[in-house]
Structure formats: structure tokens, C-alpha cells
What does this fold into?
Amino acid sequence: MITVIALILVTIGALNWLAVGIFDFNVVNWMFTPNAYVGARIVYAIVGIAGIWLIAYLIYNKFSPKRIHAVEEMNSHKHTEQ
It folds into this structure.
């Protein structure tokens, strides 16, 4: 569940960067008044943490034993040795 939430947050962050790049309009800064600068920084931090979570998730799943079939290979070696 946390991975889905992280994916949604990173997607929203990417769309914000798209708006900045194309329209020079920052949605997060628009949502928060200049007095609520801390609120915008909190949103940026949450999106950044979600991005780090997804990087760790992708690295873990790419090199997990199930993904590289290490578990099946270990089990097949046990059966052939007996």
C-alpha cells in the first residue's frame, strides 16, 4: 500500500515539474501562500521521500532472489545432489 501511495505522490510531483517546465507555473507554490512557505517545503519533502522509497523498492525487487530465480535454482540443485 505504501508503494502505491509513493507512486501517486511521485506522479503528482512529476506533473508539477511538467507544469513548471511548460507553463512556468508551480502548482505547489500556488497552493501555499508566501506566508506558508513551510507547507510547500513539507510537500516537497514528502514527494522526495516517496521518490527515495520507490528507488529502494525498484532496487530491492530487481535484485530479489525471486526475481533472479535464485530460489528455484537452489532448490533444483538440492534435488539433483540427492
